[in-house]
Amino acid sequence: MIWNLKPQSRAFRFVGHMEAVTSVQFSPDGHLMASASQDRTVRLWIPCIHGESSALKAHTAPVCSVNFSHDSQFLVTASNDKSIKVWSVHRQRLLFSLFQHTHWVRCAKFSPDGRLIASCSEDKTVKIWDATNKICIDSFTDYEGFANYIDFNPSGTCVVSAGSNHTVKLWDIRMNKLLQHYRVHRGGVNCVSFHPSGNYLITASADGTLKIMDLLEGRLIYTLHGHKGPVLSVAFSKGGEKFASGGADAQVLLWKTNFDTFNYKEVLKQHIRRIHTDDPPHLLDIYPRSPHPHDGQSQSIEIDPSFDVTDTQTLDPPVVDISSSVYFSSPSRTTGSSNGISPFKDDTSNEDLRYRPALFSPASSRRRLEDEVEPAVCTVDKRIGISPALGNALEHIVEQLDVLTLTISILEQRLTLTEDKLKECLENQHKMLLQARQGE
What we know:
This protein is of the alpha+beta class. It has helices spanning 264-270, 350-355, 357-360, 362-384, 388-439; strands at residues 2-4, 10-15, 21-26, 33-37, 41-45, 53-57, 63-68, 74-79, 84-88, 93-98, 105-110, 116-121, 125-130, 135-141, 147-152, 158-163, 168-172, 177-182, 189-194, 200-205, 209-214, 219-225, 231-236, 242-247, 252-256, 301-303, 319-323. A 5-stranded mixed beta sheet has the order 19-20-21-22-26, with no helix packed on it. Strands 3-4-5-6 form a 4-stranded antiparallel beta sheet, with no helix packed on it. Strands 7-8-9-10 form a 4-stranded antiparallel beta sheet, with no helix packed on it. A hairpin with a 5-residue loop joins β7 and β8. It is globular. Residues 272-277, 281-297 and 329-384 have low confidence and may be disordered.
């Protein structure tokens, strides 16, 4: 189903699959939508009132996931037939298949540049594939459980896996190293999503909660309650200002983030930041000093919006059923009457039904956002009378303060670990002295 939230909530149900739909994604250019189903097919849809779609058939078992490449030219699918298949979107045909998993493949994703494919399977492995040479170039094995979901971070240097064993793991594919390992859920993790900045990660779990991790500090910062059952899916918006979650309670919740809008990418260009802390130093390398009380680590915040969330459900919600009665041969050719109506805009011409670049294009949305923000910034600067040189100096000071804050946080964490180790060492030494006295 596709929801049009403005001016009033309406749902459009696209009918075409014979069994349950397991995965849905819009193409990055917004022209098409792909869906995977347990009926062993993948469908490419034109998001218009005609519900035109084309079925891609090659899998011999239910299809678990579907994902577009960054240029919307290719599609990768994962299936219970233990294979990963790559399709040409324009020609709508199978290009090649990848076979090395020995069990059901739960998820497959393109890297941001489209050169790599990451996949996870119930054979307890995460594999990295070279999409050009069609070979597996790396494999990570998790002996504790298999991954339900996998995704690349925005820079394409790391992959994150959502485990059935309640864990979330972040892997560096350049060093083939496990960077971060989170055990924050009490149930299997079904889905994850990176914030566009790459600094935050949100997870959806069968324990009914959403959790947000700060990857720079390597800790849990938020636990979100709202669903009345397992949370099956979660995704950030393009700009990261909102995220949506879907659960087994038949609810879709739309959340608003309160993350700092400071651009960390500019800081990272000047200061090399590590996303995990070093191991605690050896006790012999530490100058002993008298113990003193210190603050504990920051605790995560629990949020339960059950009393604050507006319930948009109605007793009889307006739902428009759209049957897939017309098939198309390529994304650039569409059949239908010239007075067709789009579910996203009531006054849409036939030209818009064919290409639809304006509403779904990330570039156009970004341009509209920049057009709105730039005049506002200029107006504020003129009103306050800040010179460009002073503005640049203030921005630089803010950057330095932010880096200093992060550095102090890491130092405090290391100091806490060191003091805990010293305390443990003193306790062990006291026990040894007592045992030696008793032995005498």
